Amino acid sequence: MDLGIAGRWALVCGASKGLGLGCAQALADAGVNLVVVARTTAPLQAAQTDLVARAKAHGAQVLAVAADITQSAGREAVWAAAGGPGRDFDIVITNAGGPPTGDFRDWDRAAWLAAVEANMLTPIDLMRATVDGMAQRGFGRVVNITSSAVKAPIDILGLSNGARSGLTGFVAGLARNPSLAEKGVTINNLLPGAFDTDRLQGTLKGTASKTGQSLEAVAAARRQTVPSRRFGTPAEFGATCAFLCSMHAGYINGQNILIDGGAYPGTY
């Protein structure tokens, strides 16, 4: 399927590995010009090499910025590399690592503020810088990578539950603002479940360490909680993201789209 977005410009955050890289790869395969950002230089350079090879067939460009997008200085570095505040981005994929797990009794105010800054305020700031330009040009796609925990909260993910739910509520209103929606701008959230990423592997290793079980046993038990009995792949997550960014998804707006192998047990 031709997604109809070749030649457009996309900003992809957290794009050096995992779900962010999966999204960047799918967009590169669709001929989209990319500005990819991540904090660590070495994996970002490796990702850029792969993305350049994918984009070359379409004559698309790939710019990489090593910066922390959750900090104002990092966002300024992205705007500077991209040619100015907000650039003419047609597509924005917001993505930041989730806050630490734990017991809410151990989280002080600083921990909460850091979670809100990374997983709520940063995506809002990125949207504030880009959506009006999208509306002026008559096309825009924002996809926020959040978590399935927004629909089914997990007790040890309280920081993530709270911060990402705040973003979800904000997007529910913004996406339906006629000044954006009637101008061809859509804003949706992708809610991943258990995907085979470094984040999941770290969580599994932590559980194995605490329980004394083998990593293999912990991973097998986790897979059993998913009806498909497997973990998702970044490639299939990226394909879903790319579709939401496509010309075919213009009537999908303000939605929270679960991609979790059927793990969510509810009807709605």
Structural commentary:
- This protein is an alpha/beta fold and 268 residues long.
- It has helices at residues 18-29, 41-56, 72-82, 109-137, 158-174, 178-181, 198-211, 215-223, 234-244, and strands spanning 9-13, 33-38, 62-66, 91-94, 140-145, 185-192, 256-259.
- A seven-stranded parallel sheet has the order 3-2-1-4-5-6-7, sandwiched between helices.
- The protein is globular and about 55 Å long.
Beta-strand proportion: 5-15%
CA-atom Rg in angstroms: 18 Å
Number of strands: 7
Order of helices and strands: EHEHEHEHEHHEHHHE
User: Mean pLDDT across all residues, rounded?
Assistant: 94
Relative helix content: 40-55%
Largest sheet: 7 strands, parallel
Helix count from the secondary structure assignment:
9
User: How do the strands of the widest beta sheet line up side by side?
Assistant: 3-2-1-4-5-6-7
Q: Give the N-terminus to C-terminus distance in angstroms.
A: 29 Å
- SSE class: alpha/beta
Which spans of ≥5 residues are poorly predicted at pLDDT below 50? Answer: none
Which descriptors apply to this entry?
268 residues, 7-stranded parallel beta sheet
